């Protein structure tokens, strides 16, 4: 469901309750300009707004439910299925060869990656960055999935966004490495060739014991649940983890590369 459909639902609910934009603003104690911006699509509605509008218009939670559905479909259509697996996962294992994984990126780093080459319009960049930041909320849950990330050391040297952005990103990695639910490993450059040079991947383990795999190429990502392919990537994972530094040695390396304290 697109946000445009949610806006139509809001307008219909408001019309049905015979409440004007200004009247709704008064009822929910939001500014009339904010309500107008949301109804014209200039500002994205928040869940707080949707819940307040539901209460004011007596819609029984409809607007909040529709907004939740719309939020789950943000970003490229091919990525929607993976977001569902990612949110359900009890364990995530991810490898990246040249970039810091999306779940670990700072906003500035993510913006630099998504805006590279000028292929996306500014509004699309803003939307994709917002989606990436929202995905990271799963790491802040009271009981987040257990995550293991393996990076090639090259990702720690590439100045994505410039030296300042990279330094901030290295600081974020050090913060995340302190979480008891997250392990970070780096494959040192001295290793040379390894089985991950062909590209990154994410393995998700689900509550029912099933596993799903996310692979990305230059055009789009793919969700794979074929057991043979998942087993192949599982073997690659074991090989990569065997080449990687320990968590302690990884943190030491990141600290050495970080310029500012």
UniProtKB/TrEMBL annotation:
InterPro entries recorded: Cro/C1-type_HTH, DUF5753, Lambda_DNA-bd_dom_sf
CDD domains associated with the record: HTH_XRE
GO MF, any single term: DNA binding
SUPFAM superfamilies linked to this entry: lambda repressor-like DNA-binding domains
Protein name, UniProt field: Helix-turn-helix domain-containing protein
Residues annotated as domain HTH cro/C1-type: 10-62
Phylogenetic classification of the source organism: Bacteria, Bacillati, Actinomycetota, Actinomycetes, Micromonosporales
Entries under PROSITE patterns matching the protein: HTH_CROC1
């Amino acid at each position: 469901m697109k946000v445009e459909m949610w806006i139509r639902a809001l307008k219909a609910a408001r019309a049905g309750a015979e409440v004007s934009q200004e009247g709704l603003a008064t009822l929910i104690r939001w500014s009339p300009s904010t309500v107008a911006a949301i109804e014209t699509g200039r500002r994205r509605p928040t869940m707080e707004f949707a819940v307040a509008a539901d209460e004011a218009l007596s819609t029984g939670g409809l607007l909040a439910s529709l907004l939740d559905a719309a939020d789950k479909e943000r970003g490229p259509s091919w990525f929607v299925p993976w977001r569902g697996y990612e949110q359900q996962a009890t364990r995530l294992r991810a490898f990246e060869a040249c970039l810091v994984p999306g779940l670990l990126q700072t906003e500035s780093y993510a913006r630099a990656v998504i805006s590279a080459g000028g292929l996306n319009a500014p509004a699309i960049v803003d939307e994709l960055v917002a989606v990436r930041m929202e995905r990271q909320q799963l790491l802040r849950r009271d009981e987040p999935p257990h995550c293991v990330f393996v990076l090639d050391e090259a990702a720690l040297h590439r100045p994505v966004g410039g030296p300042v952005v990279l330094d901030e990103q290295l600081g974020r990695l050090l913060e995340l490495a302190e979480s008891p639910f997250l392990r970070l490993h780096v494959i040192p450059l001295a290793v040379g060739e390894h089985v991950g040079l062909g590209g990154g991947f994410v393995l998700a383990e689900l509550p029912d014991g099933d596993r799903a795999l996310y692979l990305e190429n230059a055009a789009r990502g793919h969700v794979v649940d074929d057991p043979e392919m998942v087993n192949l990537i599982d073997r690659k994972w074991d090989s990569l983890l065997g080449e990687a530094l320990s968590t302690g040695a990884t943190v030491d390396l990141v600290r050495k590369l970080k310029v500012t304290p």
